[in-house]
Amino acid sequence: xxxxxxGVLALQGAFREHRHRLQTxxxxxxxxxxxxxxxxxxxxxxxxGESTTMARLxxxxxxxxxxxxxxxxxxxxxxxxxxxxxxxxxxxGAPPQFGVQDSLNLMDIRVRRNAFGRQVDSFTTxxxxxxxxxxxxxxxxxxxxxxxxxxxxxxxxEHDGQVxxxxxxxxxxxxxxPELTLDPRLHELFLGLVNETVLESVR
Length: 203
Prior knowledge:
There is one protein chain. With about 200 residues, the chain is an alpha/beta fold. The chain has five helices and twelve strands. Strands 2-1-3-4-12-11-10 form a seven-stranded mixed sheet. The chain has a three-stranded mixed sheet with strand order 5-6-9. Helix 1 links the parallel strand 1 and strand 2. The two termini are about 15 Å apart.
């Protein structure tokens, strides 16, 4: 079977690192900046960065509805750190001057921004992830936490009793930055999710 093409939202943040990690796994990758860039993709990664900046740029480039439509057509989405915030139906902790945080309103989770502290509080920790035999070296940088998961959301990892990795069907959300490590296993997990989605669509 031909490898499905994946996209990385390339407006701001750690998109180059995601692209590089996917390329080392042999996956065809395309950077996404405009609605037309979503054509032909089977999966899209929304990277870590600054969620309010990324949300503003998504408005400027008219990407909110095209990404929702991409998901509705069967595409898979993975949000890492800021990307997890943009996937969530409920976002808490936005600065008062920004009002309500814009999001895609797709994944039935509530996230709280910057729950693990400021930039100086960044840390790396071995994280037990469902389905992985060895701990994953999770990098937390101004990371959000998943405070609530809805029905149908599978918890894949927790840190100190707080949810930091979850899946809901074709949606994957991680509080941390898998792209900032040399460990490819979460990108492999997302590729597996995308391949599973593609196979289901042709049955």
